[in-house]
# Entry
Amino acid sequence: MKLRDGTLADVPEISAFLVELTALGKRTRPDDEAFVRSNYIENAAKVSCTVAEDDAGHVLGFQVLTVAAAGNEWGTDPGWGIIGTHVRPNAARTGVGHALFTATREAAQKAGLQKIEATIGAKSAEALGYYEAMGFRTYRQYDDRICKCFDVAGAPRD
# Structure
């Protein structure tokens, strides 16, 4: 597995596997190419967009870290990081998520972020378990969402 920065060339493949996640009921956000481009690859608030690919160059997953602005849709404190993790269904539980978070945590430390928030659907046991395993802890809930926080400042540096 190779990690690298996401590019515009990744948009079609990322969108295609987000469509797979939507069909499986694991995603409720848009999955079209325009959304991928504007929210993940070209997002002005982006700290990082890390892609994991296999030996053949196929995207296995990606993780995006942005900086929360005042009034953001998630209610995340301004200046905190907001993380999104997406792993291709056939690559789940193979270490992709762990590898992605190692890179994202480093990017957050370099950017001087103190906290990272993940907002997760309350029924998404896989995602809740993943973020808990990465060191995120539940700190608030609303509607059908659970918000987990990672303390970047308190995390050991690799």
